[in-house]
C-alpha cells in the first residue's frame, strides 16, 4: 500500500471562520482499508440482533386446566378433556396445540438466544471497511445519497461546526456544504410504516441522511443536528457499523469535523502501527494490493510474457460412419478403393460370361421364327394397353364416360 | 478504490440505480450512456466515462476523469454539441480522441438515437394530436338533471297557454271563434235548446236590414221544431233560412255531430269510366 503518498483532504471553512492557509489533513489510513462487503454483511446481520427485546407467550398459557383424557371406549378422541360440568367448557379438549384454548406448539420462550457474539477483530475490521467505503463517492452515490453538490470527498469541515448550537444554523451549514440535498431527501421521505410495526411504536420511517462525526467529547453539535430527520451524529471514538452501513449496504454519506478526521489515525491505527485506542488492532491488509485487473493484465510485465492471441477457432469434424460412407472407409482402409473397383469389374465380367454361356447353350431361333415371335408379342401388347385403341376418344364420347 | 472493487460492491451487493426486470438489468443513473447495468456502461464503476444528455433539446457531452473523482461538485465536464449531426460527431471525435473504442462507439450510437428522437419529437409537436379528455360523469349527470328540473319549473306549457289565451282575447285570431269561453257557450247552447236563449244583440254599424212579416217567423218556429228531431235532409232548407235572417243565432251542431257523417249526403264523387277499349 502506498501509504507514503497520502492525499491531502482540504478542510471546508464555514462562514465566519478565519481564513487558514492550511494545506489540509492527510487521509487517514483507515480510508485505504480493503472494502469487504462480505464481512460487512456478515457482521451487520449479527450485530443487528443485539438490540432485540425478548418476546414470549405466557409460561402458563394453555395449561391452566386440570384436564384428563377420557381414554378409549367413549367414541371420542383421546385428547385430554376438561372435567366437571354445567358449562360449555366441560368436555372440551385441552392442552394440545390443535385444541381451542390450548397451548401453542412450541411456546416461545424468553431464553431463546437473542443476541449474537461477533469476534472483536471482525467487528473492528467491518467498521474499518465501512469507513473506507464512505470515502468512495461512487459507493456513496450507489447507496442512494445525493452528493452531486458536495465539493470534496471525504467531506471535512472545520471545527467551528462543533460549536453550532441551533438547528437553524445546522441547516445553514449543511446548505453551505452542499449536503442539504441529502438531508432534504430524508426529510421528504418520512412516511407511515406499512405493517403491524405501526402499532408497535415504530410508526414512522424515513431514509437515512448524512452522518455527522465529531471529535471532541461533549460538543454542542449533537443537539444541533439531533432533530433533523435522517441525520445522525456520532463521536469518532464510538463509531457504529449500523450507522456506517445501514441495512448492510456500504457507503453512508459522512461529514467529518476536522478534529474527528485527525483522530481517526489514533483510533484505527495504520497497516503497520497498531491503534492506540484499540489495543493490538492493526488494519487488515488486502489480498491484492492492486485490485485493478484491467491494469494488471495490460501492464508491460504481463503482456511481454503472454502468448499472442489465437483468433482462429478449431471446429470439430463431423464423424462419418464408415459402414455407410465410402470416404470414411477410405480414410481407415486405403485399399478399400482398389478392392471395391476390382470387385465391381469382376462382377461385371462374371455377369457377361454367364450371359454368353447361357446364350450359347440356348437353341437359336431361325430368323423367321424370331420375327413371328416378336409380332405375336407386339399384338399382345396392343391387346392389353388402353392407349393403343385409336378410336378411344369417339368411343368414350359415345359411352358418355370421361376417363 | 479501484474500479473493479467498486463494481464488485455495486453489482454483488447493492446499487440503488439498478433496475431488474424480466428482460434484463437496467441502470437508472442519468449519466449512463446505454441504460443497461453493465461493467462497461456503469458510470460509477468506470473512473473515465462519458455520456450525452439532453437539456431542452440541446445535447451536451459529459465527461468524467479519475482526476476529479474526489470532487463530486466538479466531476462532470460539459461540452455543448452543435445542432448539426455531422458537426456533433466531429466534436465527439475530437474530445474523446484517445478514449477506449467501445465507449466512443456507444456514445456515437447514443447521439444518433437522440438526434432521431429529437427530430421525431419536433415533428410530432407540429401535428395536432388528439387529447383524450375524461368526461366528468357526475357533473354531466348533475347538469342533465338540473336541465330537466328547470324545464319542469319553467312550466312552459302554462305560459304558452296563457299567452295564446291573451292573444285570443285581444282578437289576434279574428273574431270568428265562438266557443271561447267554453262554459258560457255551452250554457247558451243549452238555453237555446230550451227556448230560453236571450237574443244576443250584435252591434252592427251601418246596414239596416228589413225583414218581412210575422209569417216567416212562424215558418222559422216550425223549422225549429223540426230541428229537435234533427233530420239531416233539412240542410238546404236551413241554409236558405239562415241567409234571410242573420240576427238569430243559428243553432249549430255540436262538434261530434258535425264530424260524423251519419245521415249526411254522400260527398263522394262517383265517376264512371268506360272500359270499352282495351289496349
UniProtKB/TrEMBL annotation, chain A:
Q: Read off the Pfam families from this record.
A: Ribos_L4_asso_C, Ribosomal_L4
Q: Where is the Large ribosomal subunit protein uL4 C-terminal domain?
A: 279-351
- Is the DNA-binding keyword given for this protein? no
PROSITE patterns per UniProt: RIBOSOMAL_L1E (PS00939)
Please provide the record's keywords in A-Z order: Ribonucleoprotein, Ribosomal protein
Of the GO CC terms on this record, one is: ribosome
Q: Which GO terms describe its molecular function?
A: structural constituent of ribosome
User: What Gene3D superfamilies does this protein map onto?
Assistant: 3.40.1370.10
One of this protein's GO BP terms? translation
Q: Which family does it belong to?
A: Belongs to the universal ribosomal protein uL4 family.
Record-given protein name: Large ribosomal subunit protein uL4 C-terminal domain-containing protein
> Lineage from the top down?
Eukaryota, Viridiplantae, Streptophyta, Embryophyta, Tracheophyta
From TrEMBL, chain B:
Q: InterPro entries recorded for this chain? A: Mak16, Ribosomal_eL28/Mak16
Comp. bias (Acidic residues):
227-244
Main localization category: nucleus
Which residue intervals define the domain Ribosomal eL28/Mak16 in the entry? 5-117
Signal sequence interval, chain numbering: none
Please state where this protein is localized.
Nucleus
Q: Which GO terms describe its cellular component?
A: nucleolus; preribosome, large subunit precursor
Pfam families xref list: Mak16, Ribosomal_L28e
* Region described as Disordered: 227-263
Q: Which UniProt keywords apply?
A: Nucleus
What's one GO BP annotation on this UniProt entry?
maturation of 5.8S rRNA
Stretches of the chain forming a coiled coil according to its record: none
Q: PANTHER family per the record?
A: MAINTENANCE OF KILLER 16 MAK16 PROTEIN-RELATED (PTHR23405), PROTEIN MAK16 HOMOLOG (PTHR23405:SF17)
Q: Which family does it belong to?
A: Belongs to the MAK16 family.
Under what name is this protein listed? Protein MAK16 homolog
User: Source species, please?
Assistant: Aegilops tauschii subsp. strangulata
Amino acid at each position: 500500500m502506498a501509504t507514503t503518498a497520502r492525499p491531502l483532504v482540504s478542510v471546508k471553512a464555514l462562514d465566519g471562520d478565519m481564513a487558514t492557509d492550511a494545506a489540509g489533513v492527510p487521509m487517514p489510513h483507515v480510508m485505504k482499508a480493503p472494502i469487504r462487503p462480505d464481512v460487512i454483511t456478515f457482521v451487520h446481520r449479527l450485530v443487528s440482533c443485539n438490540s432485540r427485546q425478548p418476546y414470549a407467550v405466557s409460561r402458563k398459557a394453555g395449561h391452566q386446566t386440570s384436564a384428563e383424557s377420557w381414554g378409549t371406549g367413549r367414541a371420542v378422541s383421546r385428547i385430554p378433556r376438561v372435567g366437571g360440568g354445567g358449562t360449555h367448557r366441560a368436555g372440551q379438549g385441552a392442552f394440545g396445540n390443535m385444541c381451542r384454548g390450548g397451548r401453542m406448539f412450541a411456546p416461545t420462550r424468553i431464553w431463546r438466544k437473542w443476541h449474537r457474539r461477533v469476534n472483536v477483530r471482525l467487528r473492528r475490521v467491518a467498521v474499518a471497511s465501512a469507513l473506507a467505503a464512505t470515502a468512495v463517492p461512487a459507493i456513496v452515490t450507489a447507496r442512494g445519497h445525493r452528493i452531486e453538490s458536495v465539493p470534496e470527498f471525504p467531506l471535512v469541515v472545520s471545527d467551528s461546526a462543533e460549536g453550532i448550537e441551533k438547528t437553524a444554523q445546522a441547516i445553514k451549514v449543511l446548505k453551505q456544504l452542499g449536503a442539504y440535498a441529502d438531508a432534504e431527501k430524508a426529510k421528504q421521505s418520512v412516511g407511515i410504516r406499512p405493517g403491524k410495526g405501526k402499532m408497535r411504536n415504530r410508526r414512522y420511517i424515513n431514509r437515512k441522511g448524512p452522518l455527522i462525526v465529531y471529535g471532541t467529547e461533549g460538543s454542542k453539535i449533537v443537539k444541533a443536528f439531533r432533530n433533523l430527520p435522517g441525520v445522525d451524529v456520532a463521536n469518532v471514538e464510538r463509531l457504529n457499523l449500523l450507522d456506517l452501513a445501514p441495512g448492510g449496504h456500504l457507503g453512508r454519506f459522512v461529514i467529518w469535523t476536522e478534529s474527528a478526521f485527525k483522530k481517526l489515525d489514533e483510533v484505527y491505527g495504520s497497516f503497520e502501527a497498531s491503534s492506540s485506542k484499540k489495543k493490538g488492532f492493526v488494519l487488515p491488509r488486502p489480498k491484492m494490493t492492486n485490485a485493478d485487473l484491467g491494469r494488471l493484465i495490460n501492464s508491460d510485465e504481463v503482456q511481454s510474457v503472454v502468448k499472442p492471441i489465437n483468433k482462429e477457432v478449431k471446429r470439430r469434424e463431423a464423424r462419418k460412419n464408415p459402414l455407410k460412407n465410402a470416404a470414411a472407409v477410405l480414410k481407415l482402409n486405403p485399399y478399400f478403393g482398389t478392392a471395391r473397383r476390382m470387385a465391381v469389374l469382376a462382377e461385371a465380367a462374371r455377369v457377361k460370361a454367364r450371359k454368353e454361356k447361357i446364350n450359347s447353350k440356348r437353341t437359336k431361333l431361325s430368323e423367321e421364327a424370331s420375327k413371328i415371335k416378336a409380332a405375336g408379342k407386339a399384338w399382345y401388347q396392343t391387346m392389353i394397353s388402353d392407349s393403343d385403341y385409336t378410336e378411344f376418344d369417339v368411343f368414350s364420347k359415345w359411352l358418355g364416360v370421361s376417363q | 478504490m479501484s474500479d473493479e472493487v467498486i463494481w464488485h460492491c455495486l453489482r454483488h451487493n447493492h446499487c440503488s440505480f439498478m433496475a431488474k426486470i424480466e428482460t434484463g438489468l437496467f441502470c437508472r443513473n442519468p449519466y449512463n450512456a446505454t441504460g443497461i447495468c453493465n461493467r462497461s456502461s456503469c458510470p460509477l464503476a468506470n473512473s473515465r466515462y462519458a455520456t450525452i444528455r439532453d437539456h431542452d433539446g440541446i445535447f451536451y457531452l459529459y465527461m468524467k476523469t479519475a482526476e476529479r473523482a474526489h470532487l463530486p461538485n466538479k466531476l462532470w465536464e460539459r461540452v455543448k454539441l452543435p445542432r448539426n449531426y455531422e458537426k456533433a460527431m466531429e466534436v465527439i471525435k475530437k474530445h474523446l480522441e484517445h478514449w477506449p473504442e467501445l465507449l466512443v462507439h456507444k456514445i456515437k450510437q447514443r447521439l444518433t438515437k437522440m438526434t432521431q428522437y429529437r427530430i421525431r419529437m419536433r415533428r410530432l409537436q407540429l401535428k395536432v394530436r388528439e387529447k383524450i379528455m375524461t368526461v366528468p360523469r357526475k357533473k354531466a349527470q348533475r347538469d342533465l338533471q338540473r336541465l330537466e328540473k328547470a324545464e319542469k319549473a319553467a312550466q312552459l306549457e302554462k305560459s304558452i297557454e296563457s299567452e295564446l289565451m291573451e292573444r285570443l282575447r285581444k282578437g289576434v285570431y279574428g273574431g270568428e271563434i265562438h266557443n271561447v269561453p267554453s262554459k258560457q257557450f255551452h250554457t247558451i247552447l243549452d238555453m237555446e235548446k230550451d227556448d230560453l236563449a236571450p237574443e244576443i244583440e250584435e252591434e252592427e254599424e251601418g246596414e239596416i236590414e228589413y225583414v218581412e212579416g210575422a209569417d216567416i217567423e212562424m215558418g222559422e218556429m216550425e223549422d225549429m221544431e223540426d230541428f229537435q228531431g234533427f233530420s239531416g235532409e233539412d240542410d238546404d232548407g236551413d241554409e236558405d233560412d239562415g241567409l234571410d235572417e242573420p240576427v238569430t243565432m243559428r243553432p249549430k251542431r255540436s262538434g261530434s255531430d258535425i264530424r260524423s257523417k251519419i245521415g249526411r249526403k254522400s260527398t263522394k264523387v262517383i265517376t264512371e269510366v268506360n272500359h270499352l277499349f282495351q289496349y
